[in-house]
Amino acid sequence: MAVESSIALRASNLHKLYAFGETSVAALRGVDITIEQGDFAALCGPSGSGKSTLLNLLGLLEPPNQGEIWLDGQTVDHGATEALDQLRRNRLGFVFQSFNLVPVLSAIENVELPLLMTSMSSSERRKRAESLLDAVGLADRMSHRPKQLSGGQQQRVAVARALVNAPLLVLADEPTASLDSQTAAQLLDLMQSLNRQLGTAFLFSTHDARVVERAQKLFTLSDGRILA
Questions:
Q1: In this protein, which residues make up the domain named ABC transporter (predicted)?
Q2: Quick check: helix, strand or coil at residue 60?
Q3: Contact between residue 134 and residue 92 where contact means Cβ atoms under 8 Å apart
């Protein structure tokens, strides 16, 4: 089944259960969510509401127990491992609270990393990584390793890495939680600017009121359901 071309991602009736011995816990209970191309959206809710679980499902990192996901107009087949890998690599970008940079690699090598699984030439990989690091204000830090960068700079590298494959959607899990107020504001300025320039949709999982204030679309999770 195809969906409208203006839709980046749509999920319908998502359920997720986790088993702990003989006990099952319902993390998601029939979630419907639509992200349009170019959205700057936030997913909020208290701890335990299912935000991280939903982000994992939307990022195709784990399958739902029930429900369907459409990405870039096509139904996601959770049993097709190779196709899932290609969708994650080519259509999705990820930004994590803990940065998840490889400590032994330089900034530019970290940004290039997702491109190593493509057929792109080494010169084109380097050119694209340089362009994005320049776009996030780190043209003079390309050869620095993560431990030589501040937290805000590391997160900028992570944003550049998330965008290097020109994804349709970037999923960001609490990206400002480890940053001070000024650095968080600068990072949000950057991501809003990239959102407008590139048309890439962003979905944030967040407790941060600063992120919520900037979101053009807001989803609130409670007890595994999105509130109307």
A1: 9-227
A2: coil
A3: no
Residue 25 in any domain: the answer is: yes
Can you read off the two tokens belonging to residue 175?
A: 């990206």
Adjacency order of strands within the sheet including 40-44: 92-96, 169-173, 201-205, 40-44, 217-222, 225-226
Residues in the chain: 228
- The whole domain housing 178 covers 7-95+161-226
Structure tokens at 47: 């701890």
What is the SS3 assignment for 119?
A: coil
Please state, in angstroms and rounded to a whole number, the distance separating the CA atoms of residues 164 and 162: 6
Segment 61-108, tens digit of pLDDT: 999 999 999 998 889 998 898 889 889 988 999 998 888 999 999 999
The domain total for the chain is 1
Q: Is residue 201 part of a domain?
A: yes
The whole-number mean pLDDT for each consecutive block of 10 residues of the chain, a chain of 228 residues, reads 74 94 90 95 90 94 95 90 89 90 97 91 95 94 96 94 94 89 90 92 92 94 89
CB 140 within 8 A of CB 63: no
Using CA atoms, how far apart are residues 81 and 152, in angstroms rounded to an integer? Answer: 34
Give a yes or no: residue 184 inside a domain: yes
**Closest by CA position to 207, among listed 39, 42, 29:** 42
What whole-number distance in Å separates Cα of residue 53 and Cα of residue 38?
23
Q: Is residue 212 part of a domain?
A: yes
- pLDDT tens per residue, range 182-194: 988 998 999 999 9
179: domain CATH number is 3.40.50.300
